[in-house]
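Q: Could you fold this chain for me?
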Amino acid sequence: MNAVKNVVSFEDVAISYVRGVHAVSNVSFSLGEREVVFLLGPNGGGKSTILKAIVGLVRPERGVVRVFGQDVRRFKEWWRIGYLPQNAVSYFERMPISVGEFLHASKVVERGFEPEEALELVGVENPSRILGQSINGLSGGNFQKILLAASLINRPELLLLDEPTVYLDQGGVVALIGLLGRLRDEWGLSAIIATHDIAALSTVASRVICVNRGALFDGDISDLVGSEQLCNIYGFHVYLVRHGH
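A: Sure. Below is the predicted structure, expressed as structure tokens.
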């Protein structure tokens, strides 16, 4: 039997936006099938850069990024990846486009959902009611749900979410985590979620990769909580507050 390939792998990756200044350096990790991993770290620590490298928006100056076993520079099947970038609301807030038009434009494969189905998937109530609404007239929380629906509309095998809890209330965060667990079980979805929402992570994460320009920790969150590594990652003492549900 052939070994299952990693969904994502980084092999000693370094990336720079300015020559001689690394945004991330010496990053190595892999993501398996049906695995949900959280990227934890301070603003500017490289979380978004790692996700951008996976979708080919930035190129390593050293090392190799692979998706589904292929060098990302040769990868073509982008429908297999759903991506919600950080501050995505600002990209579309001035676009004169309806919710339905936006979701139709996001759908690229036959097996994808219809816009109304994608909205139902992410918990939008009465989705047919908002399909004709302009996306720039939505509240922040609803807009975030529309962007999540767009990232899922092609039934991806890998989902990349960059600070997805922005604009979501506590109920929305709990619903998001529940959705990810269901899609992992039903679709075999793998996911990488970049965040600095430590409070949420302390209740839902299993594996955490901590980055601050380099990969400083890769393991179970229970091994990270209370350790000096959080201080090293953030540069100051951090305390985790666990929330029961």
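A (continued): Strands lie at 8-18, 21-31, 36-40, 62-67, 70-71, 81-84, 158-162, 190-195, 207-211, 215-220.
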